[in-house]
Design goal:
Strand content: 35-45%
Order of helices and strands: HEEEEEEEEEEEE
Largest sheet: 5 strands, antiparallel
Distance between the termini: 49 Å
Number of strands: 12
Helix content: 10-25%
Number of helices: 1
Radius of gyration: 23 Å
């Protein structure tokens, strides 16, 4: 009977050793923001202070845009606050946008700054739509590695248009943030 116990334990021990030395694949998570969650705000490029810009949505698609004609980059932003778990690592940001302005574009930045700070923030990722695009499109910030520290830092995505006469030609349907 004593010989039976070690014979039964051997396969169990082998399985345990294999499980312990096998690398664990970290599962990616997605944090989704809808276009209409963006808050209109002023950019530091053209202002010190002033009223926030008017934002608008296409009713059927909820595609949000800054409703200011002939806006240059950096003057107005749609700001999307990120509420991710502490120590999460942002690995990617994709934006689903409409770019029907053949002479305009959308610039998106992933930014961070210390809490309770008047700093403009640090850009840790950026992407711009194709200047010649006239379609619904997806833009991708590429491979990122930004570790979230909610104790000291706030994080957000800002989207700024450079549009021509029809501001609604450049709008945001949604944003997807991938993190581990």
């Amino acid at each position: 009977m004593m010989r039976e116990v070690p014979r039964l334990l051997t396969p169990v021990l082998v399985i345990l050793v294999v499980l312990l030395i096998t690398p664990v694949d970290v599962q990616a998570h997605e944090y989704n923001l809808l276009g209409y969650e963006g808050v209109g705000t002023l950019g530091a490029t053209g202002f010190v202070s002033g009223p926030t810009p008017v934002v608008a949505d296409f009713v059927t698609t909820h595609c949000r845009y800054i409703d200011v004609p002939n806006a240059p980059f950096g003057y107005y932003y749609l700001r999307y606050h990120l509420d991710l778990p502490d120590n999460a690592i942002i690995t990617g940001v994709k934006l689903y946008v409409a770019d029907f302005d053949a002479s305009g574009a959308l610039l998106a930045n992933l930014r961070s700054r210390p809490w309770n700070s008047r700093q403009e923030g640090t850009t840790v990722g950026a992407v711009v739509t194709d200047w010649a695009a006239t379609q619904d499109t997806q833009i991708d910030m590429g491979s990122l590695s930004v570790t979230i520290n909610n104790q000291t830092t706030e994080y957000w995505i800002e989207v700024t248009p450079q549009n021509s006469g029809n501001p609604g030609d450049l709008c945001v349907y949604g944003i997807q943030v991938t993190y581990n």
